[in-house]
Each structure stands twice: as structure tokens, then as C-alpha cells.
Amino acid sequence: MKYSTIQYSQVKDGIGLITLNRPDKRNAINIQMRIEISDCLCELEQLSDINVVIFTGAGSSFSAGFDLNEFNNPSIFDALFESSSKYHRDIWKFSKPTIAAINGAAMGGGFDLATLCDIRICSDSATFGHPEVKFGAPPLYTPLRWIVKDGVARELCLTGRKIDAKEALRIGLVSEITNSSDLLQRAIEIGETILEAPSDAIKYIKSYFISNVEKGFEESFLIEHDKAFQDILLPKAKNGFSLRSF
């Protein structure tokens, strides 16, 4: 698999690695990256020899969030919305376990990517936050509240404050912290532990991770992403409001 904004490799038997690969942009997620992640996951769905997928970032960041330069170009707003809507759903509905190996800042859309994975571990330099709220972009709340307490999720979404790795561990956002040099190896070890179970059992468990929640992803995502995108974010962009990376 060859891509321009991500790298894919098989790191162990049964384990694939997707690396966000725009380190000069702090791995900001643009239209092309979302399309490539969706395409890669689609291919991986069909591969019987890959049963766990790890996400990480190239360089010192996991992802700074959406590439906001794209919000300055009305001619691509349809592609921006459609690629984002599809990409989030493709990650959430992916039938195989996913691990986020968070090697640095996971902000805005990068934070969302981490919350859509099944397991999250991070380096001691990792940070998390939803600064996009300060610019009028509503964060995704429901996937976060499934992981941390409802009150904590509300506070993080409303304030946009940044938290460090220690606080992420304390609130249950990540399951462990490792040194940066050990992060990927630790993610692989977790993947290998998952693969000790039969693949049909793991796939069945993952299926009810997706479906058995108090409020379904689709229902909440339509409100938190699609409606917010169309009713709030793109109208602001059309009016030329200033966007910084989030």
C-alpha cells in the first residue's frame, strides 16, 4: 500500500501500523489523509492476516488536528465535509481492534482519532485537548464520554484545556504511559496479547463495542459532527473567520 500522507506497514504477524505522515504539519489531518486512512482501513478489512491495527504519528506529534488551511477554500468544502464524515465512521466501524500509540500532541481531530480507537497508550510527552472550541468548532463529545466520566468529558469539551499524559492516565483516557522510545513496541505487545484469542471471537467482541452503547455512534455523530460541521463550522469558514491549527 502506497500513500502520500500516511505510511502503512505490517510490523508483526497479524498487526498493521498506520503512521500519520505529515510531520512538517504536525500530522494535521487534511482531506487527502482522511481519504487515505479510509482507503487503507477498507483494504485491511479484507486481509485475513491482519487482525489488529495501530495508529501513531511521524515525528514529535500524534496529530495537531484538522488542517485548517482547507477551511479557507470554499471550493473544497463539500470534499472537506464528505471526507471527514466518512473517515470518522470508517474508524469507528472498523471491525478489527485498533490501538492508538500517542507519541505527542493529540489535539482537536487528533484527540478524536485517539478516542475512536479501542485502546490508547501514550508517551510521557503526550498532550490532549480540544482547543477548537475557542474558535467556534464543537468537539466530539460522545466518544470521549464513553471513555472518561461524563463530567470530565463535558469539562474538557467546554474549556478546551490541555491535559498531559499523567492526567490522561488518571482520568482513564489512556491505559498506560511509556517512554517515547518504547511506545511502539508496547503497542505491538498489546496487539500480540489480543491476537492470543481466536480472530472470530475478537471480531465478535468488536462488533458489540460498536453497537452496544447507551446512545449509538451514528445518532450522536450526526449531531456532534455532521450538523455542527454544516450549521456552525462551514458557515464560519465561509464568512472568513480566522482559523488556527486545532
What this model shows, in words?
By secondary structure, the chain is of the alpha/beta class. It has one domain: 2-enoyl-CoA Hydratase, Chain A, domain 1. 44% of the residues lie in helices and 19% in strands. The chain contains nine helices and ten strands. The strands form two sheets. The chain has a six-stranded mixed sheet, with helices on both faces. It has a four-stranded mixed sheet with strand order 4-6-8-9. It is globular and about 50 Å long.
Order of neighbouring strands in the sheet with most strands: 1-2-3-5-7-10
State the separation between the terminal residues, measured CA to CA.
29 Å
Radius of gyration, taken over Cα atoms and rounded to an integer in Å = 17 Å
CATH architecture: Alpha-Beta Complex
Can you give the helix content as a percent range?
A: 40-55%
Number of domains: 1
Number of strands: 10
Question: CATH superfamily name?
Answer: 2-enoyl-CoA Hydratase, Chain A, domain 1
CATH class: Alpha Beta
Structural class: alpha/beta
Helix-strand blueprint:
Blueprint (H helix, E strand, L loop, with lengths): L5 E7 L1 E7 L10 H15 L4 E8 L3 E3 L13 H17 L4 E5 L2 E3 L1 H8 L2 E5 L3 E3 L12 H6 L2 H10 L3 E2 H6 L5 E3 L4 H12 L4 H13 L5 H22 L8
Parallel strand pairs: 2-3, 3-5, 4-6, 5-7, 6-8, 7-10
Antiparallel strand pairs: 1-2, 8-9
Helix pairs in contact: 1-2, 2-9
